[in-house]
Each structure stands twice: as structure tokens, then as C-alpha cells.
Amino acid sequence: MSYLEAIILGLIQGIFMFVPVSSTAHLVVAQHLMIASGSDMPPPESPAMILFDLVVHVGTLVSIAVVFRASLSALVRATLAETMQQMHAPRRHVGPFTWLFLMGMLTVLVTGVLGLIFKSTFELVFGAPQVLVVTLSVTALLLFLTDRLPPRKLGVKSIGLRMAALIGVAQALALVPGISRSGITIIAGLFAGLKRRWAAEFSFLGAIPTILAASLLQAVEVMRGDGIEGVGLGPMLVGFIVAAISGTVALKLVLVLLYKAQLKVFSVYLVLLALLIGVGVFDGLL
């Protein structure tokens, strides 16, 4: 992989990570196009390229930390304070911030279990971009429906076991290219009744442990195999930095559109992309 290819893929990840149109789908399409144009990078379904995808995903976690630094800092401080209080003066009920943290971990656990069970199946889809026609269309429909929902009434304190598990299942579905992780988890939160702000914050903050855990597992698998041959450490680092910078700008944009219930603009884009793939515009390249 060249540094220019790493920059392009980092930009794609950064822009589309938070714009709910599936960054993984766009990475897969871009990688297939690059290979068809003569690139010697490994195929998208290879362990090394899946690790690259995860590394640029980790880059966008920097974007989350920057944009949501106030919420993230408040959550960490309050959870630690409640934990210390519980240790010194045990109470029957856990504090609200500790409960929110536990619900986030439940979401990650559900995603992790389903991801491990269906890991091999999900990886096969990376080599079958035609599946994107279905997954992109499903994402487009769900985004369109969310804008038509009446105002949501539930706050962050309403997140319970059932809702956390539901969002975890939704997040596991995002392992399939074409299903946007940010989109499907926000959609799940909205349909469960969460206000738009809290659906977004729970989705994006929950991405941090999920992506870090997935990256660690994939790194172990790659190191046990052929390593990062065909990709290289340098391009991975460049992709990481580019994704972090471009992701910060994209995240701020999508939050504005989410709060104004304007996600349907992305559903139109997804339908057009699915149609282009479906009618064979990319045949011979994908």
C-alpha cells in the first residue's frame, strides 16, 4: 500500500465514519477499485486489510474524544466518584453514572459475543461487494424513517438492560459492510425512544471500547499469521492520522443534521449508490 492510498482511505474513513452511510462499505469499494487499477495492496477480506480498516477506525476515536470531550470527561469523573463512594459507604443501588457505564459495557459485550460467533461470515462479505446493494438500501430506509419519528422523550437515565442489549445487537449488524455503525446504533436508540442527543452520545461513546477491542483481537490474529505484509506500518500510521483529522470535521457536521432530523439527505445518497452498484456501473471493478 502506498502512502497516497493510505491518505485516500484515511479520508474516506474519517468522512464516512460518522456520516451514517457506512465507512466500511466505502472502504471496501475504494479498495476494490484501487486493486482493479493496479494496486498491489492485499484484498479487502484479508486479515491485514481488515486490520488497516480497524486502525483507521481507531483514528476516528480521536475525533470522538475531541468532540465529546466534555461528556466523556464528566462520565469518567462521575463514575470514578460513585465507585469510590460505593467502596467507602456501600449502597443498595448503583449511581446513575455507574449504571450508564455498565449499560455501555453490556452493549459492547453483546456486540462482542455476536461478532465472535459470526466473525467468519462477516469477513466473507468483505469480498462480496454486491451484498452492498441490500445493506445500503436497508440503511437508507431506516435513516428515512427516523426523520419521520415524533419527538423522542426518553433521557439517558432511561437506558436499561433491554435497550442496551438492543443497541448492542444493532452494533453487531454494523460489522457487515453497508450497515453504518453510527447510523444503526443511533437508529436503534431513536426507535427505543431515546432523545436524539442521547442516542448520538451513547452511540459514539460506545464506539470507543467496541472498536478498540475489535482492533486488538484482529491485531493478534494478524500477528499470528503473515503480519501486515502488503500494507506496512507507515501507511497504517498515515491513515490513522488522516482519519482522526477528517473525522472531527465530519462528526460535527452529522450532529447538526441529526439534531435537525435531516438524516434523510444521507438516505438519498445511499439509494443512489446502491442503484449504481446494482445496475452494474462498477462491474469488472468490484
What tags apply to this protein structure?
286 residues, mainly alpha, single chain, 12 helices
Q: How do you describe this structure in short?
A:
The protein has 286 residues and is an all-alpha fold. The protein has twelve helices and no strands.
Number of domains: 1
- Sequence stretches where pLDDT stays below 50 over 5 or more residues: none
Which class of secondary structure composition applies to the elements?
mainly alpha
Strand content: under 5%
Described by strand count, sense and barrel closure, the largest sheet is: none
SSE ordering = HHHHHHHHHHHH
Count helical runs.
Answer: 12
End-to-end CA span:
18 Å
Shape: globular
Report the strand count.
0
Helix content: over 70%
- Mean of residue pLDDT values: 80
User: Radius of gyration from the CA trace?
Assistant: 19 Å
Q: In words, what does this structure look like?
A:
- The chain is an all-alpha fold.
- It has one domain (3-278).
- It is 74% helix and 0% strand.
- Helix 1 (3-18) crosses helix 3 (47-67), helix 7 (132-147) runs antiparallel to helix 12 and helix 8 packs antiparallel against helix 9 (181-191).
- It is globular and about 65 Å long.
Task: Spell out the blueprint of helices and strands.
Blueprint: H1 3-18, H2 23-36, H3 47-67, H4 69-88, H5 96-117, H6 119-125, H7 132-147, H8 161-173, H9 181-191, H10 196-224, H11 233-259, H12 264-278
Helix pairs in contact: 1-2, 1-3, 1-11, 3-10, 3-11, 4-5, 5-8, 5-10, 7-9, 7-12, 8-9, 9-10
